[in-house]
């Protein structure tokens, strides 16, 4: 695959503004296995963070300022000159004296740029001093990046403020960078606000909700147009932030919608007397079997820091559908049900039964609610 001259111009224009800090290894990235579709991390230029308090104190990047993106293309350029600048990345000498580096032998924080590789290319021939491989990357945007890029065109700043600290948004902001600017491959967790499935998340995980930004047209960034959770009376701006551990989400299978527990009143009478007419008799199961205890819980979305080490929602949905259609469920079949539900993304740990038990114990006794939208389903 080769890149066009326009793309090469983009690479050149971007890179000539940056200072070379590291060694320019013309052989490209040694030992780095990057493929189209991978998510990658990259470092911003020193000029982007040298004025931060964190940098003044630690002489390195802080927090979550790394760019993130998905590799979408690998390209090649033809020829070039000796004076061609390359993209900058802090040399080891810039951070080897930091406490963090002494302790962890790596950069502090999560300030790498992250992006998706969209194209990998090699040039044919050219001089020895020229980089031979160029990588096209579509960057992932942080809250700060979005604010900077869209400014007054932001439709809803209030909602933007509810973006998570570790949240990234896919963009079509494409850069052409050298392989040595890529530090690593990253794996942001992706979920959609209006879908029941949720990856297992740790509090320190980067995550994306399936949103995308059009940086090229710079049209208004309309958060209203993105999938949302909850309903009109929501007090959390109809967004789910995994770092907000004070709240959990409940799924209404009728409305196919997540609702914040903070936005819904708990049930007055907790005998759940309408369970039968609502087709939810399974929530009254007194059975001691594991499958029964799994489906007699509300379907909840919680981050792992908060109460549950697992999000059981996929397994619950599967078992409830089975129960509702009158099929017999047995604990002996749970392994197969767990596999089909995709709860562990295909790799089922040996102690999965124990993990499900722990999740149930941590979830405790549920406080049921009635869905405020359909008013005919316990959540
Ligand atoms: Zn809400
Ligand atoms: Zn509902």
Textual characterization of the structure:
- The protein folds into 2 domains: 172 residues, Bromo adjacent homology (BAH) domain (SH3 type barrels, Roll), CATH 2.30.30; 130 residues, no CATH class.
- The relative contact order is 0.12.
- The strands form 3 sheets. Strands 1, 2, 3, 4, 5 and 9 form a 6-stranded mixed beta sheet that branches.
- It has 379 residues and is an alpha+beta fold.
- Bound molecules: zinc ion (ZN) (2 copies).
- One zinc ion binds next to loops.
Write the layout of secondary structure elements.
Layout: H1 5-15, E1 39-42, H2 46-49, H3 53-58, E2 67-75, H4 92-95, H5 99-104, E3 113-122, E4 133-141, H6 143-150, H7 157-160, E5 169-177, E6 182-186, E7 189-190, E8 207-208, E9 212-213, E10 249-252, E11 257-260, H8 290-295, E12 300-301, H9 313-324, H10 334-341, H11 352-363
Parallel strand pairs: 2-3, 5-9, 7-8
Antiparallel strand pairs: 1-2, 1-3, 2-4, 3-4, 4-5, 10-11, 10-12
Helix pairs in contact: 9-10
Bound molecules: zinc ion (2 copies).
One zinc ion (ZN) binds next to loops.
